[in-house]
Design goal:
It contains 4 helices and 5 strands; from the N terminus they run αβααββββα. With about 130 residues, it is an alpha+beta fold.
Length: about 130
């Protein structure tokens, strides 16, 4: 074998080795897990604005369109919100609204404050002198 052939072969092997090493480094990193919010964002103020006797139009104005409308019970609207980070659901809010005779009768649900709501509640109130 000639000297130039050996050099070309060495360069080709080194290039191939570099390409393989570079390709494999993409597999070594941490997997990206995105933050995912789904459903209706429901806060304390929205729930506080709900009053028995409200029409469906008034409820839509306050809460927005529900995620789920039960096809078997049109008098029940479900608002569901989930927050998922790193592949785990960290927050979940579920509130169901029940209508009777065309007006809001009552609400049921699991409603825990979100991080923003907790920060707002924990913030010290300004004292007036």
């Amino acid at each position: 074998m000639t000297r130039s052939f050996r050099i070309r072969r060495l360069i080709a092997n080194a290039s191939l080795l570099g390409l393989v090493a570079f390709s494999l480094t993409g597999c070594a990193g941490l997997l990206h897990k995105s933050v995912l919010q789904q459903g209706n964002i429901v806060n304390d103020q929205m729930v506080a604005n709900l009053k028995p006797g409200m029409t469906p139009e008034q409820v839509l104005y306050v809460m927005g369109e529900p995620v789920l409308r039960n096809p078997f019970n049109p008098n029940r609207w479900d608002y569901v919100y989930t927050f998922e980070a790193a592949g785990k659901i960290t927050q979940r809010r579920i509130i169901s609204l029940f209508f009777e005779d065309g007006v809001l009768k009552y609400t049921l649900g699991h409603f825990a404050p979100l991080a923003d709501d907790v920060q707002a509640q924990d913030a010290p109130e300004s004292e007036e002198s």
